[in-house]
Design goal:
Strand order of the largest sheet: 1-2-4-3-5-6
Order of helices and strands: HEEEHEHEHE
Mean pLDDT: 80
Largest sheet: 6 strands, mixed
Radius of gyration: 20 Å
Number of helices: 4
Low-confidence stretches: 11-33
Length: 177
């Protein structure tokens, strides 16, 4: 005769199911997130290419520290609409940081050819994004950092080195060195 689960096992199972439903519901809420600050469509040059995306800043007056989001692998078009980026951006905005999210070359509103781009092209694009932020009056040029996810985590240390004077790097799922 099969053994019946204990009350503790049943309560734990129901609790875990409830937690999973809340987590899924929370994810669904983040998917439909609106930006937590003034949003501006902006473009910058990387070599001969025009790269486009968003600049989102806190509601109060700057100059702000700022973060450039670096894409994971893949096309990266419309990355500013991905729930993960919006979630991280919301936290950073709440802490007083401005956020720069752009479409990879050849994706979304950015010029270029994604399919022929190589690693160095993406590094150069990210360096150009940092340099763009340094030109803005509402950004503190001494407090610009990078948030690299996956492949962006691989790019971030090299971007910081090439751009020079990058204040910090947040490496999410990048290399351990």
């Amino acid at each position: 005769m099969p053994r019946r689960p204990s009350r503790k096992t049943i309560l734990l199972s129901v609790g875990l199911l409830f937690a999973a439903l809340i987590a899924f519901g929370g994810y669904q809420a983040v998917r439909h997130f609106v930006w937590a600050g003034p949003t501006e469509a902006v473009a910058f040059s990387s070599g001969d290419l025009r790269l486009a995306g968003l600049f989102v800043k806190p509601a109060d007056d700057g100059p702000y520290p700022a973060v450039v989001f670096l894409h994971g692998s893949g096309r990266g078009d419309g990355s500013h609409d991905l729930p993960d980026y919006r979630f991280h951006a919301h936290v950073l905005l709440r802490e007083g940081f401005a956020v720069r999210v752009y479409d990879n070359r050849g994706c979304g509103d950015s010029a270029g050819d994604f399919d022929t781009a190589v690693y160095d092209d993406f590094v150069q694009d990210a360096v150009a994004a940092v340099r763009y932020l340094r030109t803005r009056d509402d950004v503190d040029p001494a407090r610009i950092g990078l948030l690299g996810t996956s492949e962006g985590g691989w790019l971030a240390p090299e971007v910081a080195s090439r751009a020079g004077d990058v204040d910090f790097v947040i490496n999410k799922c990048g290399p351990p060195i």
